[in-house]
Amino acid sequence: MKMYYEKDTDVNLIKQKKVAIFGYGSQGHAHALNLKDSGVKEVVVALREGSSSIKKAESQGLKVMSLSDAAAWADVVMILTPDELQAEIYKNHVEQRMREGTSLAFAHGLNIHYKLIESRKDLDVFMVAPKGPGHLVRSEYQKGGGVPCLMAVHKDSSGKARDLAMSYAACIGGGKSGIIETNFKDECETDLFGEQAVLCGGLVELIKNGFETLTEAGYPPEMAYFEVLHEVKLIVDLIYEGGIANMNYSISNTAEYGEYVSGKKVVDSKSKEKMKEILKDIQSGKFTKDWMEECKGGQKNFLKMRADLAKHPIEEVGKKLRDMMPWIGKNKLVDQSKN
Ligand SMILES: NC(=O)c1ccc[n+]([C@@H]2O[C@H](COP(=O)([O-])OP(=O)(O)OC[C@H]3O[C@@H](n4cnc5c(N)ncnc54)[C@H](OP(=O)(O)O)[C@@H]3O)[C@@H](O)[C@H]2O)c1
Ligand SMILES: [Mg+2]
User: Is the model's pTM score more than 0.70?
Assistant: First the structure.
């Protein structure tokens, strides 16, 4: 697979465009600030009336517009509001207002791939999807690096969509760590699978079940927390910088032997079968259909599951222990008062 870097792109293309970033959440703040710092002079954040993010964006030196005004003003509209609201925002504020021949962009393929948005014919439609949480898209950029990005073109009415998408990807930091060209379908399906089976779903259940196993056996919750949550980061850092063997080099031989013989008992062939089922539901569109129905019903189950997790003993003991480690909070990636 071919990787593209800054040198393979024309970084100036996006700098000459008027870019409207819809939303100032996890991805929104990162795209807006990285583009501005990369030299895009006309970046505007588009927010709904009365949004609590207006202050946050303005305090970072960004101009704010209403959703409709920004859609009419921009050469590039990047939609970075929650996936489940994008179709409505597109219909109510964007579709009728974007100027002819401008570009509609996304950081995830869900709305286009599952046809929740059918974009206007004359528009270019592309995607620049950072492979990391928005707060890291910003913090890695500030360190002089960047988060790798997937780039895809869904519709190229102008014949220039690909070059502009590459330029955008480079200017939010993807040009430092690598840009992969793909399509909306593959980005969308692999992204949903990754977050459900491994990164968020799989990992959180692994941590919770490990914590419960230890505490139910009578071990103190504080010990269990350090063992199965706090240390995840320390281990993942080693995998991140040098792969699995790099982590195995640092841990003891006892830990490494345990990894080989016990890991497979926890995540076994049945787990892999489950992963395949998850992937099938993503590919068939069932997952997205269910999620959109959940949203139409006011997200009742979703909000209940969020509330239940907040009450889990691992979150309670974790808060207490992290308060004793102030250096962790000092360098926090997520500061909800700012982004
Ligand atoms: N989160 C990630 O790290 C990540 C990674 C890769 C791709 N993506 C993709 O990036 C996109 C954005 O995700 P996100 O997690 O960054 O979103 P998010 O943080 O949940 O977005 C929040 C922003 O959207 C605004 N918003 C919410 N409802 C709105 C409405 N009805 N009208 C107008 N604005 C509204 C919020 O405005 P207020 O301030 O007014 O509440 C806020 O500024 C999604 O397509 C997602 O799949 C996300
Ligand atoms: Mg995702």
Answer: yes
